[in-house]
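Sanity check

After download, print the first record. It should look like this:
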Amino acid sequence: MGRKMTKLSEKSLFSTQVEMAAKPELTLRESWVIQNLDGDYLRSFLQDNTVVSYCSERDDAEWFNTYEEASLRAKTLDIVVRKGHKLHRFMTRRISL
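Expected structure tokens:
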């Protein structure tokens, strides 16, 4: 009954991309790719007079740094090309230059 409650400090477990760039000790970052119903990855969108091109290798795919950017592109592809594009998240190592 005589216990006094202590308030815990609110510390966010999530960081924005700007905060992540300021923390060189964190080497992983979140990256996103888009995959169609056939299992191919998005390579390019609206480039070289082509609406969309796909590739079978994940390494050749177009990578997105934020979920919002990838989600917007996937929704656009669902409208323009065909419904059924999925997002896949990967943790990639930051490369120090």
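If your output differs, re-run the checksum step. Summary of this record's structure: The CA atoms of residues 76 and 82 lie 9 Å apart.
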